[in-house]
Amino acid sequence: MPRPSHLLLLPVALLALSAAACAPQAMNSTVPTYAVGQVGRLEYGTIVGARPVNLQAPNTGIGGVTGGVAGGVIGSTIGGDWRARAVGGVLGAALGAVGGTLIEGAAGAGQGVEFVVRLDRSGSDVTVVQTNEEGFQVGERVAISLGDRARLIRAAGPAPMVPTPVWR
């Protein structure tokens, strides 16, 4: 018959999977609080290309360490004598570290779009990677907000007229 400590593994695993599933998704409409009141400048242009990209957050190691500690504590409660608890703790720490790393990676992953924008002023092309909850399309006029990070914003109105030089 399984010991009561074995029954702790299932809720912990389910809690970890639930946390990964409910992790906040990276959204372009989310701005860090330090950006409030910061001055940025705008460049205007037209989207001339777009391609889907996978977004991946950098691995900080926090998930692995947290999972390892939790797994070690839970694993050390398994077994009868000190040897079984020691083996359970080591195996629990290893499995917890792997699980925590996987959960951290899944929580920071998502889908984005790399937009190519042709700038009105210079005619040069720049790229901006972001999520596309605004539904931007190729051919659409945008403003690029350049501040703490670059973001596309829907621009109102057509492209400005560039005067044609007159040769005499």
TrEMBL record:
Q: Which UniProt keywords apply?
A: Lipoprotein, Signal
Residues spanning the signal sequence: 1-23
KW Signal (keyword) present = yes
Q: Where in the cell is it found?
A: Cell outer membrane
Q: Which residues form the Glycine zipper 2TM domain?
A: 62-103
> Any keyword tRNA-binding?
no
Grouped into one coarse class, the protein's main location is: membrane
**Pfam families in alphabetical order:** Rick_17kDa_Anti
User: Topology with regard to the membrane?
Assistant: Lipid-anchor
The record ties this protein, via PROSITE patterns, to: PROKAR_LIPOPROTEIN (PS51257)
Q: State the similarity comment.
A: Belongs to the rickettsiale 17 kDa surface antigen family.
Q: What is this protein called?
A: 17 kDa surface antigen
User: From which organism does this entry originate?
Assistant: Sabulicella glaciei
